[in-house]
Amino acid sequence: MSVTKIIEVVGRSSESSDAAVKNALAEAGRNLRDIKALDVVSVGLRGDNMDEWGALCRISFLVDNVDD
User: Fold this and answer.
1) 3-class DSSP state for residue 10?
2) What is the secondary structure of 11-39 as a DSSP string?
3) CA distance linking residue 30 with residue 48, whole number of Å
4) How many other CB atoms are there within 10 angstroms of residue 65's CB atom?
């Protein structure tokens, strides 16, 4: 039986909301294996000049089985 863990991450980009999502996935992928899904919870503009996109994402990945 497999177990899935879900975390939330925030990606940022000065380009677009799509780029912010891709940045979130790329950074999470550096540390996580077996990513199975990414759901975008919200996107919005941030910063003093409202010039930075932020994307709140939920990422699900498989938890490694550990045998005793």
Assistant:
1) strand
2) EEESS-HHHHHHHHHHHHHHH-SSEEEEE
3) 30
4) 8
Q: Fill in the amino acid letter for 28.
A: A
One-letter amino acid for residue 35 of the chain? I
Position 51, amino acid: D
pTM for this entry: 0.85
Amino acid identity, position 68: D
Residue for token pair 């990422």: 59
Per-residue pLDDT of the chain (68 residues; tens, 9 = 90+): 788 999 999 999 999 999 999 999 999 999 999 999 999 999 999 989 999 999 999 999 999 765 54
